[in-house]
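Good morning C.,

I know you're traveling, so I'll keep this short. The sequence:
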Amino acid sequence: MPRMNIIQAVNSGLRCELQRDPKVVVFGEDVGHFGGVFRATANLQNEFGDQRVFDTPLSENGIVGTAVGMAIYGLRPVPEVQFADFIYPAFDQIVNEVSKLRYRSGGQMACPMVIRAPYGGGIRGGHYHSQSPEAYFAHTPGLKVVIPSNPYEAKGLLVASIRDDNPVLFMEPKRLYRASTGDVPEEEYTIPLGQAEVVKEGADITLLAWGAQMEMTEKAAELAEKDGVSCEIIDLRTILPWDVKTVTESVLKTGRLVISQEAPITSGFASEI
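The tokens, ready to paste straight into the viewer:
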């Protein structure tokens, strides 16, 4: 089994779905010939052509708006927003069109799409390249919000997201893009959306995180173990819908819960949990 970083795992997941389903299309700013600013779409245009992997103008609302039309007419678009910080021009499209299309059409139309967006800090990107806006979108019925924390999750959750008939915001922790490596199957596989993972069982306290904060949480658990504290670690993986059952069962066992999020404290998703 090859070892991959998150960038390679995302690329592998996109390749699997482009090969499997001719309705899948990938597009965004610089994703074609250049292969994306982080190289997540490298070589895909060469392999699948510029009708299925292509560049767009610098217009996030146009990118997502185009994806809505594609989804209505039977395609499965995977648009990329180059940085999650740039997603706000598309906020109206995502919140008022993408997420509500199935409901407003009485179930006659779906809007299957995956909006990929690198998020978070840790790359010295400043205030326009370091935001964690997941809580804005977790308030949106009809939308799924998925955040992997390692390469294995990145591929499995991405493939599952592309196959889902609902719109998914797929947020990738860019600080870990090349820092996190692991074994990833070359063949296709899926990880269920809405299902957290108990990474490590423990008895004294539950530690919960998602995305890049999982690395911090695991390091904290190692330090706590040296002091005799048995930590149970949960990777939430999906923000919307989130796995209430797994978290509740863990906290009923340990009696304590600590949540680590990268986003601002006020109205962050940790408050919901």
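Safe travels,
E.
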